[in-house]
Structures are given as structure tokens and as C-alpha cells.
Amino acid sequence: MYLFHLIKQKRGDLNIKIADPHSAPLRNWRHSTENSGMKFLRSPGVHHLDIEPLGLLKFSRHHSPSTSKKFTSPNSRPSLHQFNAHSKKVINKYSIEDHWIQTQVEDIDLTEDGACIYHRNGEIWAKHVLLAIGNGNQLHIPEWAKSLKARSFPVHHMYSPEFSINNYTPGFHTTVVGSGMGAVQVFIKLAETFSKPITLLTPGKLIVDQYDIEPGWMGPKYLTQFKQTKCWQQRRSMINAARKGGTITPDVHWELKQVLAKEHATHIIGQVKSSEFFGSDSACMNLSDNSSLLSDQILLGTGFSPVINSDLIQKLVSKPELKCAECGYPIVDPFLRWHPNLLVSGELAELEVGPAAKNIIGARHAGQRIKHLF
Questions:
Q1: Within 10 Å of residue 127's Cβ, how many Cβ atoms?
Q2: How far apart are CA 217 and CA 15, in angstroms?
Q3: Which of 73, 88, 95, 296 is the most buried (most CB within 10 A)?
Q4: What domains can be seen in the chain, in order of their start residue?
């Protein structure tokens, strides 16, 4: 979204390139949302990729009729189909694929005049670099699951590029592990599609909330105090307190209750202490209440590790010219500059943008700040 602001200016002196490991824009988004079985986004209809806030709502009025529902309450949350259709139009409007370079960035050297970007296929010199890195490649896999996977037991993370829900084959018992939107939605999808036994294993009781952060964090209601707080440690505490990780929306909770009425679908609350093989093709998960759960395949909906743990960012934070707070995250100025030639967005900018930094609205806030530099 920040790039759209720059591309829209149509300045001849701006040569914009996007280095990304995926073959096309939103490829990872489409893969992940298809795997999760998402039907509607959690964010409202005014949160989308285009610059104009009402762009998605206007698009829906002229988009070809569909038998599927385009929006749902509250706040006109778009269906995944509608959001993707609008995103495709936006990507085409700004000719994003003309700026695309499929590669993996491995390191960045900063100078007074710019930056040298080392990637898997060579080098790129740039006057300015914007780190717009998500944590899609930072899959969180519990240690007990790693030990099973190392012995070739079928353990899959639902957001892994190697896993596709379209290739899922039900066995005698599948376990979905996780308590957030992704885990619950994929459990619903599999339980609705197949009649083989399937269990949702959550570490605690499910928490229902319409939002993953309060709407007040998307505007001045809470951000005013956040910006007035000069201590980075206090800002980090405010961010951590504001987030509602591992929650599900009321509509997904309602769908879950309908699915759990089926005989083959169950929900168990418990934390996995250890795991071991049981027989030749099953695994036994030993739970914190001393009970156990047998499965022939496990699907993890255990989310992501922080982007700060990625190999590239770990190399950057070791550079003395790039300052970080005690929490390890970049200290940036109001224009999101970590260095005169290096800018950040998304999760990396949260000490300046706030707890919504890695949401769609956070990208919109970042774009508004960055555009003033060019």
C-alpha cells in the first residue's frame, strides 16, 4: 500500500522494485487463506489494499454479480472472494507485477548514498530500501511437533508452503492444534467436508472477540497517548496489552458449535507436554492433565514467530548504526526511518505505528507517513 502512494505519483525519477520470494503479489496470502478455509475477513470493508478508503465498497457495486455473499456484519466485513477480486484489480491498476523481482533478500549493506541489497540471485543498489516483511515464513512449530516431524510423522503447519488443504486426505483420526482463527476455521472446513474423526486441541478455553485489537487503536482514541509516551519499554507494554492473540470472532464460534454437534468432531482442552510414536503409524500426545490423545496426522494452527527472528532482520539488528529498543525492535523516527536510507513497515514499525502496525490499517498509516519523504 505504501508503494501505491509512490507509484501513483508517476514520477520519472522513481525506479521502484519489489523483491519478494514468491512468484506473484499476494501468492502467499492466497495460499494461506485457502488453507485456512477463511470465508470473511476479520477487518472491515474500509481496510483493503487501495489508497481510497471506500475503494472496496465502491468496487462491490460494479463487480459482476455473484451467488456468494459479498459482505457480512459487523462493519461490512468483506468475503475473501470479494477482497481478492478487488485486490487483483488494484494490483493491475498500479502494474505491480512490472516492479516485481522474485528472489530472497539475504542481507543489506547501508552507506551514506544508499544501500546494497544482497539477494539469492545477485545484488541490487538502491537509494532507499523499505522493509515490508511479514512473518509468513516464520512458522511456529512446537518442540514436541518437531520431534515427530523429524521421524517422518505427518505433522503439517497449515500455513506451510508445502501443505495444501486441497491435498488433505482424512485418516482414522486427525488433530488440529491451535486456538486462533486459522486453526478453528480449518477445523470447521475439514469437519464439514469429511466424516472421519477429527479433534480440535486448544491449550485453553476459546476466547471470543470481534477484534484482535480494539478499534480505538486504529485512530487517535488510543494512538494519541501512545505517541505521547516516549519510553520504548512502555510502548511495548501498551502493544502487548492491546493485542488479543488466539481469539475467534462470534460468527466463527457459532459455526464451530454447529460442527461440534457432529459425532465425528470433538474439542479437547489441553497442552501437549510430550509426544511419542504409538505403534507403526500413530502418535500419542501426552497432555498436561495426564490424559493422552492418539492421532494419525496432525495439523498445526500454531501461528508464527515474530518477524524480528528472521535471518535477515537478525543480520540487520547486529549492525551498530541500526538502533533497537530493549525488546529488540527497531527505533524509528515518525517517518519510519531506521536509517536515512532504510525504512520499515508492518511489525517492524510497531513501536512507532502501534499495535495495529501489521494489520491492513497499519499499512495504510505507514503509507501516509512514508509518502511525505518522496
A1: 12
A2: 34
A3: 296
A4: 2-137+305-373 (3.50.50.60), 143-209+244-300 (3.50.50.60)
